[in-house]
Amino acid sequence: MARLLVMYAHPGQRFSRANAAMAKVARGVEGITFVDLYARYPRFDIDVDAEQARLLEHDVILFQFPLFWYSTPSLVKEWQDLVLEHGFAYGHGGTALAGKTLMLALTAAGPQDAYTATGYQHFALRTFLTPLEQTANLCRMRFAPPYVLYAALRAARDGGIEPHAKGYGRLLNAIRDDRFDFDAAAGQDILTHASPLIPGEP
Amino acid sequence: MQDILILTFVFLVAGVAAVPVASRLGLGSVLGYLIAGIVISPLLVAFGVDVVSIQHFAEFGVVMMLFLVGLELDPKTLWEMRHRLLGLGGLQVAGTAGVIMVGAMMLGQPWSVALAIGLVLALSSTAIVLQTLQEKGLMKSDGGQGGFSILLAQDIAVIPMLALIPLLAMPDLMDLAGTGVEAHGPAADTVTEAATSNHDGAAEPGFMDQFAGWQQALITIGAIAAVVVGGSVLTRPLFRFVAQAKLRELFTAAALMMVVGIAALMTVVGLSPALGTFLAGVVLANSEYRHELESDIDPFKGLLLGLFFITVGASIDFGLLAENVVSVVGLTLLLILTKATVLYVLAMVFRIEGADRWLMALGLAQAGEFGFVLLSFTVASSVIPQSVADQLLLIVALSMLLTPGLFILFDKVIAPKYAADQSREPDEIDARGTIIIAGHGRFGGIVNRMLRNAGYTTVVLDHSSAQLEMLRTFGFRVFFGDATRPDLLHAAGIEEARMLVVAIDDRDHATELVRYVTNTYPHVATVARARDRNHVYELYAAGCRQIMRETFDSSVRAGRSALEVLGMHPFEAERMARDFVTDDRQALIHLATLYNSDIPIHENEAYVAKAKELMAEQEAALKGEAKAFSSRTERGWLPPSIDEVKSQDT
After folding, report:
1. Which structural domains are found in chain A, ordered by start?
2. Does A154 touch chain B (CB under 8 A)?
3. How many CB atoms lie within 10 A of CB B456?
4. How many beta-carbon pairs under 8 angstroms link A with B?
5. What's the pLDDT tens digit per position in B149-166?
6. Cβ-count burial A110-123 (b if 16+ within 10 Å, e if not)
7. Helices (H), B454-502
8. Helix or strand or coil: residue A71?
9. ipTM, two decimals
């Protein structure tokens, strides 16, 4: 059993649809750790020691968040700045996270074709995620392909949220049970609920 | 009774009229008092006033002054001064006395008279020097410290002098002794009285005479021990007991009782009362009642010293001066020159540099009030003939009269020369930047802890002695007293403070304190605790801009917790709380600028109008009509509508 930590970060949860549905599913998965970062640190006073201790107790660290301005919500950046200390996560003697896996589950308002050279976002989604990918590299962690919902706002109207949330549940279960093949996933750009690597409906 | 009232009035008028003029002209208060004394002296003669007896009474101001100086010096500092005290002070007394003795012998005095004159004139005026040094803020300078060491050593030296002088008695003067005592009978100074009783058979037998020498020594040591032990052990319970009565004047009475009591005890055992109270002051220097004692005794000291200086001015016998003007003025200048030279050489030896060397040399170049005491004692002991003593008395008074002139010379000519070379240490400025916290209860206590954690020096004033007792045990520097009293604020160093935190319970006192400090010391920042909204307005009008409602922050946190318990996401509750605080503060500032303490709120039209406008805004927000805080809370996290997204997609 892989020890899975889901860190959920959404500052405006009352208005969330996709992430709220995903969080609801994640909360229901047994045998994993689920943390609502904005509820834990509403005043941004992050307990660095407690966060580091929690990282040590898990193998897979998964951040779930809506993409804000091509990045994470600000509390996740604050968390990175404080928790991923020199000597702990990177640098001299900083091997605490070596061998663990960093994974993202994010929602984007723009559709998939916007995240291309000719689309209005001009770059691929993975390009925007390279700071996080390199963070994983520097911490000697494996960076797994992200689980993505494009056009998240439209999905609420088109019924796209439910399958995405269910797929998220299957993904979390598979990771927990060591049934998710990270090596095979390494070749993927992104994962969705329809990806072959995500287990089918039970 | 009538006479006393008229006399008191004359003295007060003289002081009140002369001192402000002298201060404005930059001459210092001492010269003002001296001139006032000279001016009223014909009046005093007309009234038949015994100036000398008033002078001896006023000398108690010196006793109080040394008590206050002691309060400023903790035992550790005093111990660090010991080399200067003994070396510098001892050499000054011995050296000056020796040089003057040789000079007097050259002028034809017998050696015994010359020695007595040397001893009398070696002493400087503690009253004038300390008063002037404090007034000019030079007490902490190297020259000031050196001068203080010498003055303290002189005070100690008086005791052996009183023992030595009767041994110099000349047989042919003995017959005149009775008249001498007669003439200065009521003038019997505390010091003289004790000493006389030991050595002069004519005086009534003193308390100490019934004991053998070794017993006297034991009693003396016991008295000193009583002052030290009593000062450190008994004062705290005593003042706590007095403080419980919550009567201001009772505390003053207790402080006076202590000073007078110690002076009396010292007198009985034949020690200098000034030295005894100085010792008591040193013992109490670390006490939480220090500032309270300072501000209680200070007015008495000031008045008595003022009276003393007036009597010095008034006692100058211009008739005698006119007869011997050349010799008296010449000898006075010679005396000042001699004393200054000895001091200058000693300052060089003890490595007091630059302007400080001149300060010490010129500042202590006069003869002092102990000179008066010793002179009447020498006459009484048949050591110096009356005629010589009269001239010496004139020289002593004249040298004191000239001292303010020497200080002005120092200020205007010497100090500026050295000012350029003196680079100021940054440490000095830091040490001054203390923070005064008025009120150390639940509110001020937190502020104090935070400031101290950040490394700031705080001076805490509180009028609850129980509270102070508790804080003392935790090693805080706290002082007993009512912070709303200007004199206590002064004693706590408000002039040099960076900030005043007003955390006292009484709202009106707090407002008054803020008003006083922002008006009198505009450079001192104020942070004030407000009881409620109206108190905020009052404090704002009083000039404070950092105002904290005492329960506001905790109430907001309680509101936030309530929202969380009701199921609101903690981050949303946090944002709502922040917006609430921002809006409320904004409204408060608006209303505070419109508030006028002279107009009741319901009659203040501008205030009422603004309050109505703010209420309307809030109501609109509740109905979701306006962009007040509820919508601002949501702004940013509210996703765009699907139509807005669509238009961008294409």
Report:
1. 4-185 (3.40.50.360)
2. yes
3. 15
4. 49
5. 898 888 778 777 877 887
6. bbeebbeeeeebee
7. 465-473, 486-491
8. strand
9. 0.85
